[in-house]
Amino acid sequence: MLKIAVCIKQIPLIEEANFDAATKTIKRDGPNVISAFDLRAISLAVELKNRHGAETTVVTMGPPQARDALVDALAMGIDRAVHLEDRAFAGADTLATARALAIWLARGNFDLIMLGKYSLDAETGQVGPEIAELIGAAQITGARKLEIDGRKLRAERESDEGFEEIEAGMPAVITCAERIAQPVKVKPGASEEAKTKPILSVRAAELGADPKEFGLAGSPTWVQEVRVVTTPKTECKFIDSTDAERAAAEVVSALETIGALNPRVHNRRSIGSARRASNRNHDVWIVCETDLEGRVTRGTLELLSRGYELASRLGGALVAVGFDRAIAQHAGLLASFGADQVLIVEHPALVSYTPEAVAEAVAKLVLIHAPWGILIGATERGRDWGPRLAARLSLGLTGDAIGIELDSEHRMVALKPAFGGNIVAPIYSKTFPQMATVRPGVLELAAPSEAREAEIRIARPEVSPPKSRLIKAHSILDTTIVPLEGAEVVVGIGTGVGGPDGVAKAAAFARVLGAAICATRRVTDLGWVPRQLQVGLTGKSIDPRLYIAIGVRGAPNHTCGLKRADTIVVINNDADALIFERANIGLVADWDAILPALQDAFQRRLQ
User: Fold this and answer.
1) N or C: which end of the chain has fewer CB within 10 A?
2) Residue range 395-424: average pLDDT?
3) Buried b (16+ CB within 10 A) or exposed e, 517-547
């Protein structure tokens, strides 16, 4: 019989976020819920149980009140519940959490271990890949479809450009995207019945490991402080939209006055022409990514730009690490953004991407070269293999950082957001090399130096046969529209546009402005816009100088991704829509009536 374990996390409601100033950890004594992505994992487990006759177990690690989450999971149809409950587990970071869970899970000989794609409180998805590495299992992160054929899995996993088809054998760790299953509807009476079911409590001593491996003591990362980020109040200037053409002209004039139509003036840092020599324990490694067309991503160039500054202060070299000989053709570009070396990692197992092969290959090179730090893009792929590398080498990893700094002792300080950006915490690491994944679009590009050259080096580490296989990658993004990452102007689409025809009109408007498009969660759930363009709590965060919201209601799930937008223009026919609370300029109007006039007004301004 198929054995399935589901790891869940009980998190505080975002609006109830509270912190312990002494321990620098989230207080969990208020209202708590099962993390939204974990609900999808529970749903999938119940679905597979009904389809394949599987035995299902739900596992959580947390304080006594986390038991409520286990009861809820039992009410949804899970068979057994296990609670890792001990003060020794308190304050655990992702690796210490993964370590405790992995020890218990390894004893259960599970075929499938499922988690949510990431946890919404700390916005991290590291625990799943770290568990996979610690127990030696295959992994599929961000799965949106899953099929089982005997001991083989076939899945579609989310990528930055669309999706990838993956094959893997069991045992495997699956992290579940929102679209993989609908939440379970609890049957009448199930909740009361679930309260009578036994829950196995597991103490730290029962795991058989050194207590120092768990909780704060076993955590390689630590929080220096917690900063609460307050969203500044905005006063919306409402423009009479009775006359569409006059209103459109007034919008453009108002944007001119506040400077929102002028491109940002970037005082870009310059890159020197001299090549720096490698210096053990002082080099900075930047992992390079390319898109499906083979182009180096903007996020890679952003990381190089910041890495150049770090390496200059540390007295080491900036090393661009790539996994395909084709990266050599981009050596000039990588050098122009600061790379002193381009390290090409070669092995037949790396020709087609798998997280197991990449993590193993990089781990072996890290042990040889001992860099000071490794920066990886917080992309779907970077989040896939980066945590696996960290677990393999027992390294601290800060996920989804929005800034990288150095302290007076030349330690990495990774700025980590949480609770939809309401909180930012500087994270330090006790281990070397220090690691972070960094969100694309949050670091400034440098001014490239065309005169620079980089040394090309090739490494061929031994790599084990991977446990999964990439079959095919698919792109579903519209390449005629500006990419969302780094876009200065963004057109936001809500359900108020009515459907795909409305989306097409909004996209045409964006093309006139040279803008990117994004959407709310409800729009992507309906399939009108690819999930890769979703902005908000379970999507991306953006920082445009101008954001134009069309038919957007303004739910906090979406607006938390707009915290860094400079100017917001809202078109909505509901004067009481929440989005107006975030707007600088508001039009209470039928978007379909006002948009053509607004498009013409912008077109005249651009000409």
Assistant:
1) C
2) 87
3) bbbbbbbbeeebbbbbbbbbbbbbbbbbbbb
33, 125, 227, 401 from 25: Cα distances, Å: 18, 18, 12, 17
The token duo for 465 is 């046969």
Q: Say yes or no to pLDDT of 576 above 80.
A: yes
pLDDT band at 134 (very low <50, low <70, confident <90, very high): very high
Taking phi first (over 0 means left), then psi (-120 to 50 degrees means alpha), and beta for anything else, what does residue 474 get? beta
SS3 424: strand
CA distance 317 to 307: 9
SS (H, E, C) 248-288: HHHHHHHHHHHCCCCCCCCCCCECCCCCCCCCCCCCEEEEC
Is 477 within 8 Å of 531 (Cβ atoms)?
no
CB 490 within 8 A of CB 545: no
- The sign of the dihedral angle between the CA atoms of 49, 55, 60, 61 is negative
Q: Does the pLDDT of residue 145 top 80, yes or no?
A: yes
First to last CA, the chain: 68
What is the predicted pLDDT for the residue at 249?
94
How far apart (Å, rounded) are the C-alpha atoms in residues 582 and 559?
A: 8
| Residue pLDDT, tens place only, 303-358 | 999 999 999 999 999 999 999 777 889 999 999 999 999 999 999 999 999 999 99
**Which amino acid is it at 285?**
W
Per cent of the chain over pLDDT 90 is: 74
Please, what is the Cα angle at 128 between 125 and 133, to 5 degrees? 125
- d(C-alpha 384, C-alpha 378), whole Å: 9
Q: Name the average pLDDT for the chain.
A: 91
The answer to whether the CB of 343 falls within 8 A of the CB of 319 is yes
Length of the chain in terms of residues written: 607
Are 69 and 11 contacting, i.e. CB atoms less than 8 angstroms apart?
Answer: no
Q: Reduced to 3 DSSP states, what percent helix, strand and coil does the chain have, rounded to the nearest 5? A: 35, 30, 40
Structure tokens at 268: 């870009």
What domains does the chain contain, in order, with CATH numbers?
Answer: 3-219 (3.40.50.620), 230-264+477-606 (3.40.50.1220), 284-470 (3.40.50.620)
Between the alpha carbon of residue 338 and those of residues 278, 445, 490, the distances in Å are 13, 11, 29
Tokens of 300: 């890679």
- Residue 552 and residue 581 in contact, taking contact as beta carbons nearer than 8 Å: no
The per-residue pLDDT for 319 is: 98
Tell me the pTM.
0.90
Indicate the range of 91-100, 272-281, 439-448, 496-505 predicted with least confidence.
439-448
CA–CA distance, 178 with 36 (Å, rounded to integer):
8
391 vs 413: CA distance, rounded Å: 20
Contact at 8 Å (CB) between 529 and 492?
no
| Alpha carbons 587 and 570: distance in angstroms, whole number | 6
- For the chain, counts of helices (H) and of strands (E): 14, 32
pLDDT score at 504? 96
Sign, Cα dihedral of 446, 449, 452, 457: positive
* Three-state secondary-structure class, residue 25: strand
Beta strand 138-149 pairing with 152-158 = antiparallel
Question: What distance in Å separates the CA atoms of residue 398 and residue 402, rounded to the nearest whole number?
Answer: 10
Q: Name the H helices within 325-417.
A: 331-336, 355-369, 380-393
- Answer whether residue 573 shows pLDDT above 70: yes
